[in-house]
Design brief:
The structure is a homodimer of 208-residue chains.
Chain A: H1 7-26, H2 37-44, H3 58-70, H4 74-81, H5 87-104, H6 106-115, H7 121-144, H8 153-177, H9 182-204
Helix pairs in contact in A: 1-2, 3-6, 3-7, 4-7, 5-6, 5-8, 5-9, 6-8, 7-8, 8-9
Chain B binds a DNA duplex (30 and 30 nucleotides) through residues 6-8, 11-12, 15, 36-39, 46-54, 57.
Domain HTH tetR-type (chains A, B): 13-73
Keywords (chains A, B): DNA-binding
Protein name (chains A, B): TetR family transcriptional regulator
DNA sequence: AATTCCAGAGAACAGTTGTTGACTGCATGG
DNA sequence: CCATGCAGTCAACAACTGTTCTCTGGAATT
């Protein structure tokens, strides 16, 4: 069943991943729309033409990067929203989770923040699609909460979208604060916590 | 007092503005970091070398675009926050104002959304600086509200930042919906309104 | 009226880019 | 063991890039 793929395909996936990694690295100080195909292959140490064996274009590579950056994040998000504990505990855990994720995958986070409104349409589309999925999943998870009794589907989706956007903004702020002093990161964490508290309070009194 | 500047300087400012306008136009389908100096001068119909008479580099031009896009927005924002009327009226007016602004200056809005996290550091910095000014001004305006009695300075700044970020996200969503059907724009307006309502409720019960 | 100044033109530079077609070596499947 | 498939190479292409230096026409200053 577990098909060990041959030496052939293994090597191919290795260069493919090397291309993705190199691209992600180069994107730390430029946007996808200015990333050159030759630039990427040069960084990997491979002929420019080899690029075409893996991707049709840079935009295509970008879409795959979106998958890599966001695809594996769905379970993590869902479990965070569905977590138990009182409101403040859940918020603290969520903020901490975001901080850890930014620390572990700064390049991915930067890529998503940058290309969400970036100059490459298919990539924007891919990100938009993944974020819409997040919102939908968060909405479903929120609907499970007893506190969501009486909420309309539209209002739940509005709240879910707000949480998703908030998550992204917080991640991006952690990223900006990453090279700065530790107190700056602390400030970001505190502000994010307060924002989530305020949203939580609004949610609690929504039905009045 | 009103110094009419000579034919000489008038012509210079004219080409300068033409360069800014052309750049903004070209940026509708790419990012600043991939915008070429020759591309801009070609669009204006001027020699590539003429560019240097006005800007040191594309990044420099980008910083000036930030000024053009956000510099004149301060009074509008402040008056919106300080507006009278009940909560829902103020929210409706704010959302409407954002919608009109996006309609009137779509390219400026796109530029800010795109380059806020874009690949050109000085431009990111300039945007960050202007947005920090917005937050500070909104904070001061919020402090005037009777509802802000008992709020700490930090919490007020947190709320102000939330409003500023929300304004930007709403503007960007209106932009995405611009080419779509009118119902889509209506949906964006409704969601933005609901988000502001929720934040307003959270604000109202903050002190509990 | 004579002089200075300067926005813009023009040509040339060394590099860079994406894409093509034909190739080679080696893992794969018969 | 041989034939096929295919990841990666290589050379060449036309087109493009940012930046330099030199020049010029006409407005601004004296």
């Amino acid at each position: 069943m577990s098909h060990t793929l041959g030496v052939r395909q293994a090597q191919k996936q290795k260069t493919r991943q090397a291309l993705l990694d190199a691209a992600l690295g180069l994107l730390e100080e430029q946007s996808l729309s200015s990333l050159g195909l030759r630039e990427v292959t040069r960084a990997v140490g491979v002929a420019p033409t080899a690029f075409y064996r893996h991707f049709r274009s840079i935009a295509d590579l970008g879409v795959e990067l979106v998958e890599e950056a966001l695809g594996s994040l769905h379970p993590m998000i869902e479990s965070t929203v569905s977590a138990t504990g009182d409101s403040d505990e859940r918020i603290a855990r969520a903020v901490d989770l975001i901080a850890r994720h930014v620390d572990a995958y700064p390049a991915h986070v930067r890529f998503i923040a940058r290309e969400r409104h970036g100059g490459v349409q298919p990539v924007r589309e891919a990100i938009r699609h993944q974020l819409a999925r997040f919102s939908e999943e968060v909405k479903v998870a929120l609907a499970e909460h007893p506190e969501s009794a009486g909420w309309s589907d539209g209002d739940l989706l509005m709240l879910a979208g707000l949480y998703v956007d908030q998550m992204l903004m917080t991640a991006s702020q952690f990223l900006e604060a990453m090279e700065g002093p530790a107190e700056e990161r602390e400030r970001v964490a505190r502000t994010a916590t307060q924002r989530l508290r305020l949203v939580g309070i609004g949610r609690h009194h929504w039905q009045d």
